[in-house]
Specification:
By secondary structure, the chain is α/β, with parallel strands linked by helices. It has helices at residues 34-43, 79-88, 107-118, 147-159, 165-170, 179-183, 198-208; strands spanning 7-12, 28-29, 32-33, 48-53, 67-71, 94-99, 125-128, 143-146, 174-177.
Length: 209
């Protein structure tokens, strides 16, 4: 897939993995770690790749392109702090934000999110609508953002002591791509899969067989 100019991919790789019971992002799936799979997925839609988290994250090289590592100023401060830190050093106009524990991201879906954002100056963020019927839960990641607006909103949130990614989205002008639209590119909804527990990983492994 052709890479879009002026796009940074931010892979959130912090957290203690306490629910997983070990270094979650180093767990293997299909011959690669969870973190490697997330990085490879975003590499096809971005010019720069940032791995943000705590402690200083370990990443891989993709296609000979360097990966910028951003450690949290305060260890294990959470994904909001990791995002704020990564955005501060980002010079591109747009960014796609994903979790390092999202091993099945579909690049075509990510590209659609970025295209929707780039084509509408009235938007600062684009999310994916939750495909689960009657679900009130909002799916925050993956998230496409306009860097300047998102960086300002993230700084404001951190200054206010608000470290919720969900509430961060409320601070910017956002829209959700309807589930029917993005599921046409990803019928199984794999882009939303993440790993919190060992059982999650086993379930995804079964799907990959």
């Amino acid at each position: 897939m052709t890479r879009r100019p002026g796009v940074t991919a931010i892979v959130l790789a912090g957290g203690r993995s306490s629910r997983f019971g070990g270094p979650k992002l180093e767990a293997e799936l299909g011959g690669a770690t969870l973190l490697e799979r997330a990085i490879r997925a975003v590499a096809s839609v971005a010019d720069e790749i940032v791995v943000a988290g705590s402690p200083s994250p370990v990443a891989v090289e993709v296609g000979g392109r360097p990966i910028r590592l951003v450690a949290d100023a305060q260890p294990f401060a959470g994904p909001m702090a990791a995002l704020a830190g990564a955005l501060r050093g980002t010079e591109s106009a747009l960014a796609i934000v994903v979790g390092g524990d999202m091993p099945a991201l579909v690049p075509a879906v990510l590209a659609t999110m970025l295209l929707r954002l780039a084509s509408d100056d009235g938007l600062d963020a684009v999310l994916l609508a939750n495909p689960v019927e009657d679900s009130a839960a909002r799916q925050v990641l993956p998230l496409a953002v306009r860097v300047a607006a998102a960086s300002a909103a993230a700084a404001t949130a951190m200054d206010a002591g608000d470290r919720s990614l969900g509430r961060f989205v409320d601070r910017v002008r956002s829209m959700e791509i309807p589930s029917a639209e993005w599921l046409a590119l990803d019928p199984a909804g794999r882009t939303l899969l993440d790993v919190d527990l060992p059982a999650d990983l086993e379930r995804i492994r079964n799907e990959f067989r």
